[in-house]
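Question thread 4412

I'm putting together a teaching handout and wanted feedback from people who do this every day. The idea is simple: show students a protein as raw sequence, then show them the structure tokens that encode its fold, then repeat with a second protein so they can compare. Below is the first pair exactly as I plan to print it.
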Amino acid sequence: MESNVNKEELVVNPEYEDQTPVKLDKKDLNKMAWRSLLLQASFNYERMQAGGWLYSMAPALEKIHKKKEDLSKSMKMHLEFFNTHPFLVTFVMGIVAAMEGNKNDTETIRGIKVATMGPLGGIGDALFWLTLLPISAGIGASLAIDGSVAGPIIFLIMFNIVHFGLRFGLMHYGYRTGVNSIGILKESTKLVSRAASILGLTVVGALIASYINLSLDVVIKAGEAEVNLQEGVLDQIMPKMLPLGYAFLMYYLLKKGWSPLALIGITVVFGVAGQYLGLF
């Protein structure tokens, strides 16, 4: 959803008794960033991340609103439905904290939250789940398969350097740029999301060829001639065709609503049965 809110349209909130602007410091922003780690601790299907959002915003709201009545009104507004990517949420928090500090209108703040939570959800999924996680887990798993204890350590370090760097960096960036960040986000959303998706899908394709080991051990006899079905036929058509087909089959079943646990069970049964029958 896009917001038509411009900086010039921002007005002071008439609902607040105290209209004095309040600035936050780095300590306040860092405290909010740490609290954002618990964004989904009270996740529910009615308001989703609203409880965690308010818990993260609480240090800023308590410093900004000195009067209990103002604080109460602000907290009630921040308990409304909210849902975005849990790693990039600090960007929205920074913007909203800047607007709360300026005592901007409640409807404007609500509009900013709604306008940003959707795009950030898409960018976060592409950036973290389709790009960073496959790359860092792939490198860590490669080391672990070779017996190196550094595998899981490398994975955790690589993933969390990016994760915490963005979590804290976006909090400060969002606060500094305030509502001007909305225009930047709207211009860059499609470009960033598309670039991250292309890179992530390329990595996933490489992982399919590297880590799904599926080949047939079947030999076809025609008179005195013998043809290995895998090497003589399938590999000639396209190498790693069976792993690719199996990955597409699992994706298709997932889209049809099959449980990941059920697909894991099917894969185990399929592998054991194939080995027992001499197919693999």
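The second pair follows. I'd like the answer to focus on this one:
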Amino acid sequence: MIVSRRRLIAGLAAAPILAGCDKLTYSEGFRDTLRAAEGLTMHAQRLISDRAALAREFAEADLSPVFRSNGTRRPGSQSYAAHAATGFADWRLGVGGLVARPQSLSLAQLRALPTRTQITRHDCVEGWSAIGKWTGVPLRLILNAAGVSARARYIVFHCADDYGPGKYYESIDMIDALHPQTILAWGLNGQPLPIENGAPLRLRVERQLGYKHAKYVERIEAVESLSPIGGGKGGYWEDHSDYEWYAGI
């Protein structure tokens, strides 16, 4: 059985010998141990499962009546408000970093590309789940068009929503970036993606927990290392709340 770092924390917190769990949580040495467990979880999971295995897909009858929103429900910047007011007609997705052909794609251009529609379950780390029908362009098509370098090991998603002094960001590795169910979604349940769910574009990486599915994506960057990104752990929550970088399910 593979034990995630989060489950490990819960298990340790329940153990009577660890009445001082809060102290351990704030111990850098203990955190290093948990981070090592995270890496073990990822490598073990990928060792025993097919890298291209698909997450379960559902039928229309399984759709949740409401696909709830969490996190940012509407970015507060003037530029986002201006794009939203025009239906994102002048909005563009930037693709750069370790690529041969940097891209700047309008929403219309993205919608004209080959699409994938998938009905999947979103599992939030907060304990709720919802099933939605997502439509979007496979991320691998964007990366292939940009000519992503063999040096690139991660794809970073820079988003429009403000978190403290900076913007939200998240990342995945190339294995998940090239997975057939990893898409940049512009539609939810047969309609344009609502603002509260991440319009005009969000990531769907179906084999990971919900916080990896970055909303309001406005720029994609191919990188060799996550060290220069934010605090160096690959994502906003990873840097600020010690979430696992790999949230595989």
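Top answer:
Good format. For the second protein you could add a caption like this: The CA atoms of residues 97 and 206 lie 24 Å apart. The mean pLDDT is 86.
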